[in-house]
Design a protein that fits this description.
With 317 residues, this protein is an alpha/beta fold. It contains 12 helices and 12 strands. α1 runs parallel beside α12.
Length: 317
C-alpha cells in the first residue's frame, strides 16, 4: 500500500510506515505543495499524511480513488472537508493532546513578551538606541492580581490557565460548555464573551475554527477591551477580525497583542509589521522537537491501524 506525506516530517513516522511494508512517498521540498502537485502525487495513494497548509476539498477528495485515511498532522482540521471525506468512506484523523503543553508554553511566553514589551526592548538594543537606564523606559504590566480571560477552555486553554494561575491571577473563561476541572482546580468562573472582554486584563484565545467561531472577535465586541488589555491568539487567525484588532492597536486603545496565527496566513497584513505594540511569531505553537516528532508518529500509527483494517486512534468524527 502507498502512503503519501505532503512534507518532510521529523521523528520516526517514516520508519514506522516502512517497517510495516508500506511504500512511502514524501514531497521533499520545504514549501507548501501546489494543488497540481498534490493531485499528481497523491492520486493513487492509499493514505495521506497532510499538514494544515493543504486544503483538501471535495475536488481533491474525488481524485483520491484509493484513499482510506487522511491523517492531518495538526489538532485543527478546518483545511479538510471532513463531512465529504466521511461520505467517501475516508477516515480523517488529527493529533489532539500531544501539542497541548508546547502551545501553552508559547502562549504564556507571548503574554509575558507583550506585558513586558520585550519586542520593543530588543529592537532598542539591536538598533543601538539604549543609552542607559531610565525610570520610565518601557514600562510594562505585572501579572499579579490581574484577571486572565480564556476564550476556549479546552485542553490548551486549561493548560494556559493552569500556568498563569501561578502568577497569582484570577481566571475567567468563555466556552459553550462548563469546564468542571477548570472551575474546581483553578477557581475559574464561566462568563459571557462580552463580560470576559470587559473584565479581563490578559485574553488568551484557544478556539478551533468553524462557521460559528469565524470572526467571533469582531468590531462589536473587541471595542469592549480595556485600554490596558493584552490579547494573544495561538489558535487560528480567522477567529479575530484582524483589521479591527489592527485599528485598536494603531489607536492604542489596547496595550498590546501577541499573534502566532493570522488571517490569510502565510500572508501577513503589512500594518501589523509596522506596529510596535504587537509581538508576531510565525505559527510555531507546536514547534518543539518532542511535540512535532510525536505528532508525526501519531499520524503514522493512525495510518497503520486504518490500512490494517483497525479503528483509528484519533478520528475526528
Amino acid at each position: 500500500m502507498k502512503v503519501f506525506i505532503t512534507r518532510k516530517l521529523i521523528g520516526n513516522a517514516e520508519k514506522l510506515l516502512l517497517a510495516k511494508g508500506f511504500h512511502v512517498k514524501v514531497f521533499n521540498e520545504d514549501r507548501t505543495i501546489t494543488r497540481e502537485e498534490f493531485l499528481s502525487e497523491a492520486k493513487d495513494s492509499d493514505a495521506l499524511i497532510s499538514l494544515l497548509t493543504e486544503k483538501i476539498d471535495k475536488d481533491i477528495i474525488d481524485n483520491l480513488a484509493n484513499c482510506k485515511i487522511i491523517a492531518n498532522c495538526a489538532v485543527g482540521y478546518n483545511n479538510i472537508d471532513v463531512e465529504y471525506a466521511k461520505k467517501k468512506n475516508i477516515v480523517v484523523t488529527n493529533t489532539p493532546e500531544i501539542l497541548t503543553d508546547a502551545t501553552a508554553d508559547l502562549t504564556v511566553a507571548l503574554i509575558l513578551a507583550c506585558a513586558r514589551r520585550l519586542h520593543e526592548g530588543e529592537l532598542m538594543i539591536r538598533s543601538n538606541q539604549f543609552t542607559g537606564w531610565k525610570p520610565q523606559m518601557l514600562l510594562g504590566l505585572e501579572m499579579k492580581n490581574k484577571t486572565i480571560g480564556i476564550i476556549g477552555a479546552g485542553r490548551i486553554g486549561f493548560a494556559v490557565a493552569k500556568r498563569l494561575k501561578a502568577f497569582d491571577t484570577k481566571i475567567i473563561y468563555f466556552d459553550k460548555i462548563k469546564n468542571q476541572m477548570l472551575e474546581k482546580q483553578l477557581k475559574a468562573r464561566k462568563v459571557s464573551l462580552n463580560l470576559l472582554l470587559k473584565k479581563a486584563d490578559f485574553i488568551s484565545v484557544h478556539l478551533s475554527l468553524s462557521g460559528v467561531t469565524h470572526h467571533i472577535l469582531n468590531g462589536t465586541n473587541l471595542n469592549l477591551l480595556k485600554p490596558t488589555a493584552v490579547i494573544v491568539n495561538t489558535s487560528r487567525g480567522e477567529v479575530i477580525h484582524e483589521p479591527v484588532l489592527i485599528n485598536l492597536l494603531k489607536q492604542k486603545k489596547i496595550f498590546a497583542a501577541g499573534l502566532d496565527v493570522y488571517e490569510g496566513e502565510p500572508n501577513i497584513n503589512p500594518d501589523l509589521l509596522s506596529l510596535e505594540n504587537v509581538f508576531l511569531l510565525p505559527h510555531i505553537g507546536s514547534a518543539t522537537v518532542e511535540t512535532r516528532s510525536a505528532m508525526a508518529e501519531l499520524c503514522a500509527k493512525n495510518v497503520i491501524r486504518v490500512l490494517s483494517g483497525r479503528k483509528a486512534l484519533t478520528p475526528v468524527l
